[in-house]
Design goal:
Structural class: alpha/beta
Shape: globular
CATH class of the domain at 61-85 and 136-195 and 272-356: Alpha Beta
CATH topology of the domain at 61-85 and 136-195 and 272-356: D-Amino Acid Oxidase, Chain A, domain 2
CATH superfamily of the domain at 61-85 and 136-195 and 272-356: D-Amino Acid Oxidase, subunit A, domain 2
Order of helices and strands: EHEEHEHHEHEHEEHEEEEHEEEEHEEEH
Number of helices: 10
Bound molecules: flavin-adenine dinucleotide
Radius of gyration: 21 Å
Number of strands: 19
Strand content: 25-35%
Helix content: 25-40%
Distance between the termini: 36 Å
């Protein structure tokens, strides 16, 4: 007993929903399932930035020494919980190996390519106008509190300029003008005109409805616990609602992907990297565009009627508890940069934690793992799963439909760590 589909997509976040949509657009019969609901996890409360400007992978030269300095500060934007976890130590080992200038440059090129394709796809969804997701193409400004931070930022951004990204350095006055008159203590900034932002949950849920209208069957509260296999083939997924048989399977379960892959005997090196956000009703006099508070690694994004402050990166395992100290330091950074926005008098809509699915080299896993002929993994998008969601969905659909992919995918090979 059970149900049958052509393609079963596991996980209904940004990556799974995009994959299901682009597969169904090709006339394939798709079932998309999630243990919770559509967009109930990391794709919900993130900062909503579409950032080719973030194309530098997390693994880059200098990040380890910076990380070590931050590790011992309870309010810092980065934290690793020291614990005995073989998968964490192996991950850190591989992360260290990926922190080279060569990897940073090569990674930046492919991340830029997939984000720019995604931007093109977001623009076409917006032009179609089937659902509202508050896409705004105003760019983003990285703001600096100190001369040191500014200098550091300009150095980091050098590589992005080298790979052709448009960047404009701004002094204090230019920043104030760009922000439309909101008072800021920033001493300067760098402006990325090619970036954009949106309300992530509105997009993912809107696209899921559109996917449904082109035939995708969506099953919520449906958890994959294991699989039935035959040789190099997965035959069915065993869920809490029975077996679902399919010809092809897409694993797009974000930070949960390793535990699901384990049931197939596959090991995929993804660590959950926890971050927080606080959402407020957007005050009348507030930011007109998103900013990144560089030293504090905190994003402030106006999205629709919401103003969201988000950031921090904690390697603490599958733990969604909220560390109030870190949340307070996120909000404090926003208060310091924008003293006239009265955060304290705004009611909090939601304080949220999410788990970024993070690979050691900062690049996603998109492709077929060795061992199974009818499985595609699409996970590990770390800090860029919204920026790269549509591009990933398209790559998955092109792989399964045996089309030429729009970009080379060797650097996303899920077998590269084996
Ligand atoms: C604070 C913060 C800010 C961020 N800001 C940005 C940003 O500005 N721009 C950007 O591009 N990215 C950003 N990100 C990263 C982005 O949110 C993630 O990369 C992206 O959401 C990952 O999407 P996903 O679909 O892989 O995972 P998820 O959205 O987590 O989806 C995975 C789904 O799989 C489901 N699932 C898990 N296990 C099972 C199972 N056994 N059976 C069935 N279903 C299962 C889960 O319920 C979940 O719904 C941010 C992240 C954080 C934490």
């Amino acid at each position: 007993m059970g149900t049958k589909t052509d393609i079963l997509v596991i996980g209904a976040g940004s990556i799974g929903v995009n994959s299901a949509y682009f597969l169904a657009e090709r006339g394939l019969k798709v079932t998309l399932l999630d243990k919770d609901d559509v967009c109930a996890s990391t794709s919900w409360g993130n900062a909503g930035l579409l950032v080719p400007s973030h194309s530098l992978p997390l693994a880059s030269p200098g990040v380890i020494s910076q990380g070590l300095r931050w590790m011992f500060n309870a309010k810092s934007p980065f934290y690793v919980k020291a614990r005995f976890s073989l998968s964490l130590w192996l991950w850190l080992w591989k992360f260290r190996a990926a922190c080279t200038a060569k990897h940073q440059r090569e990674g930046a090129v492919v991340l830029r390519e997939i984000s720019e394709k995604s931007m093109e796809l977001y623009n076409s969804f917006d032009d179609l106008g089937d659902f509202e997701f508050h896409l705004e193409r105003k760019g983003i400004i990285f703001l600096y509190a100190t001369q040191d931070g500014y200098q550091h930022g300009i150095e980091d951004i050098g590589l992005l300029r080298d790979i052709g990204l448009e960047v404009v350095d701004m002094d204090r006055n230019q920043v104030a003008e760009k922000l439309g008159g909101v008072d800021t203590t920033a001493i300067g900034g760098t402006y990325f005109p090619g970036d954009a932002h949106l309300a992530p949950a509105d997009f993912v849920k809107g696209l899921a409805s559109k996917a449904k209208s082109v035939g995708v069957e969506i099953k919520t509260d449906t958890q994959v616990n294991s699989f039935q296999t035959k040789g190099r083939k997965i035959v069915a997924a065993n869920t809490n609602h029975g077996m679902i048989y399919a010809d092809q399977f897409v694993l797009a379960a974000g930070s949960w992907s390793p535990e699901i892959a384990n049931t197939l005997g596959l090991s995929i090196p993804i660590q959950p990297a926890k971050g927080y956000s606080v959402s407020y009703p957007r005050p009348e006099k507030s930011l007109n565009m998103p900013v990144m508070l560089s030293e504090a690694k905190t994003a402030v994004t106006p999205m629709g009627n919401i103003l969201r402050v988000g950031g921090t990166l904690e390697l603490v395992g599958m733990d969604l508890s909220i560390n109030q100290k870190r949340v307070e330091s996120l909000v404090q950074a926003a208060k310091t940069f924008f003293p006239k926005i009265e955060f304290d008098s705004l009611p909090i809509i939601k304080t949220w934690a999410g788990l970024r699915p993070t690979t050691p080299d900062g690049l996603p896993l998109v492709g077929r793992p060795k061992g199974f002929d009818n499985l595609v993994i699409a996970a590990g998008h770390s800090m860029m799963g919204i920026s790269t969601g549509p591009g990933t969905g398209l790559l998955v659909a092109q792989e399964i439909n045996e089309e030429k992919q729009f970009m080379p995918t060797e650097m996303f090979d899920p077998n590269r760590f084996n």
